[in-house]
Amino acid sequence: MRIGLDLKPGDDTALVARGEALFTRGDIRARADDLSAAITERGVSRVLVRSDDSALILEAIDACDRAGADLFIAHTTIAQDRIDAICAEHGIGLVLNGERDWRSATPSPSESRIYMMTSGTTGMPKVAAHSLQSLLAKAKAGVKRRPDQGGRWVLTYQPTGFAGIQVSLTAALWGGLLITPAERTMSGFYHVSRHWNGTHISGTPTFWRSFLMVADPAQLSLQQITLGGEAADQPTLDRIRKAFPDTRVTHTYASTEAGVVYAVHDGLEGFPAAWLEAAPSGVALRIKDGFLQIKTPNMMSGYLSAASQPLLDDGWLATADLVELAGDRVKVLGRDDNTINVGGSKVYPLPVEALILKQDGVIEARVYGQPNPVTGALVAADVVLEDGADEKAARKAILIACREALPAYSVPRSLNFVDKIAVSAANKKG
Amino acid sequence: MTEDQIYAAIVEIISQTLDDKGLDVPEITPETEVLGDELGIDSLDLATLVSELEKKIGFDPFAKGFIEFKTVGELTKLYVR
Questions:
Q1: Do the bridges between strand A94-96 and strand A46-50 make them parallel or antiparallel, or are there none, so unpaired?
Q2: Is residue A345 very low, low, confident or very high in pLDDT (cuts 50, 70, 90)?
Q3: Residue A277 has pLDDT above 80, yes or no
Q4: Which element (helix H / strand E) includes A5?
Q5: Above 80 in pLDDT, residue A74?
Q6: Which of A4-18, A163-177, A306-320, A393-407 has the lowest mean pLDDT?
Q7: What is the pLDDT of residue A299?
Q8: For A30-51, what is each residue's pLDDT tens digit?
Q9: CB–CB contact A186 B69 (8 Å)
Q10: Which of A11, A99, A221, A241 could be stapled to A25 by a disulfide with Cβ–Cβ 3.0 to 4.6 Å?
Q11: If you measure CA to CA, which chain B residue comes closest to A342?
């Protein structure tokens, strides 16, 4: 059976809270009706939304679904010229970012697909295609327990990212409330969680480590705590358990390509080794050369550009996550590629190196992850300068350039000036 | 480093961070909450603060895992040996 967001006209059930403002299902339905009519009238087949406003994103999802249009969901950090390039490349006829920005585009065949993107701040973002039906099916299947129906979900993830969209769809599908802060700071999250009596919070381990520093657990009425985006470590799981002894704690493993692969509820890091034989929900897991490989029923429909997780010939998805079998548990050790995971946000070193190399006096640069107790890792850079170059001036120029072009989590937090950078036999730095 | 010196180093780094972000630097006391409303410090800034303190003081109290603290004063105490 075809499922949709099922927003009914005039329904005064609250759907999105932003700061202290509230939007009902009927409000969003009315706005989506208007948008859907405009899309149909103009003959637009592809729409792009670029906003952190969850009410607008849900309006766009509902409108495009009913108008049969494809929807591209873009992060607000993607620069305008790249948005223009994406629109031209994919025949997008409408950009929503608070206003309706109509563009001339040749209509292309559309099937209510949802396209999500990587951050792409220093290159063209990668675009992954999902069918709304499969996203909704996943959101529907993700809620098995009655207390989760009608939950009040605090949205801590980026509203335009895969995890953010999953939480938004889950709240919408199950008659719940999606709680978003006026300001995305720890006290902002704590304030709205208390104000709207949040029952469900899903966030990265980094989010939780920071949230516990501002939150008084007794002031919250949480029923479900979920950790995702990074491997959940035992100390963080233990701290959450101590702060919220009566709340269900779950950690998940998900990827843009495969969606949520598994969810663990026993408060222990990793997952049970028995799942290598039989994992829940039709998922299959195996370890190949130390790497986790996965197979799920709800694989995404395909990438428009190169995938970050290659699909193998036998239908398995190869991840870059190194795992270790330890007794009856499989533990996730971390990623064995160059990606740096800063509090759940992925940073690719190459574009950051390229940006540093553009600065005056810089002859070589290596960007890498430095372990950090708060965010798991921070971006660090080793930089070689020309003889006689002014270190202080170079530091300033590099930081200014990075802060202008990159999201905050990608900016090197530690800059070291060195005489040379070691190059391995394979001509790889570091 | 003495407790006073560590405290001064923390205040200096926080002030510099806020200044870099173009935010006003309020009066910081030992009771100021690091991630509280008064300061515009986020997780990333906190991660950077901890990393800079390790460089400056030469040891990392979080080496064996994160330790909970709320205020600037509590953070200072973690570095006193």
A1: parallel
A2: confident
A3: yes
A4: none
A5: yes
A6: A306-320
A7: 63
A8: 999 999 999 999 999 999 999 9
A9: no
A10: A11
A11: B44
Q: Which segments of chain B have a pLDDT < 70?
A: none
Nearest CA in chain B to A374: B47
Q: Nearest Cβ partner of A375 from B47, B63, B68?
A: B47
Best residue of B56, B66, B72 to probe chain A, by most A CBs closer than 10 Å = B66
Cα A89 to its chain centre, rounded Å, is 24
- Would you call B48 and A408 a contact, using CB atoms and an 8 Å cutoff? no
Distance CA A363, CA A385 (A): 6
Task: Give the pLDDT score at B61.
Answer: 92
CB within 8 A of A103, min separation 6: which ones?
A87, A92, A93, A94, A95
Chain B partners within 8 Å of A413 (Cβ): 44, 47-48, 51
CA distance A288 to A298: 22
C-alpha A113: how far from its chain's center? 18
Name which of B33, B40, B47 is nearest A374 (Cβ-Cβ): B47
Helix pair angle (B43-57, B3-20), 10° resolution: 140
Check whether A206 has a pLDDT greater than 90.
no
Locate the chain B residue with the closest alpha carbon to A407: B44
Q: How far is the alpha carbon of A4 from chain B, nearest alpha carbon, in Å? A: 36
Determine the pLDDT at residue A60: 97
CB contact set of A216 (below 8 Å; sequence gap of 6+): none
Contact at 8 Å (CB) between A364 and A422?
no
CB atoms within 10 A of CB A276: 16
Query: What's the pTM?
Result: 0.80
Query: What span, in angstroms and rounded, lies between the C-alpha atoms of A159 and A168?
Result: 8
A71 residue type, one letter: L
Which runs of consecutive H residues, i.e. helices, occur in A79-200? 80-90, 132-142, 162-173, 186-195
* Strongest mean pLDDT among A39-48, A311-320, A402-411: A39-48
ipTM: 0.92
pLDDT band at A304 (very low <50, low <70, confident <90, very high): very low
Residue B68 to residue A213, Cβ atoms within 8 A = yes
Q: Are A157 and A147 in contact (CB under 8 A)?
A: no
Chain B interface includes A374 (CB < 8 A)? yes
Contact B68 A414 (CB under 8 A): no
Average pLDDT of every residue of chain A: 87
Tokens of A164: 């953010």
**Helix (H) or strand (E) run with residue A106 in it:** none
Length of chain B: 81
In DSSP notation, A147-180 reads GGTT-EEEE-S-TTSHHHHHHHHHHHHTT-EEEE
- How close B49 comes to chain A (CA, Å)? 10
Residues of chain B in contact with residue A235, where contact means CB-CB under 8 angstroms, are: 65-66
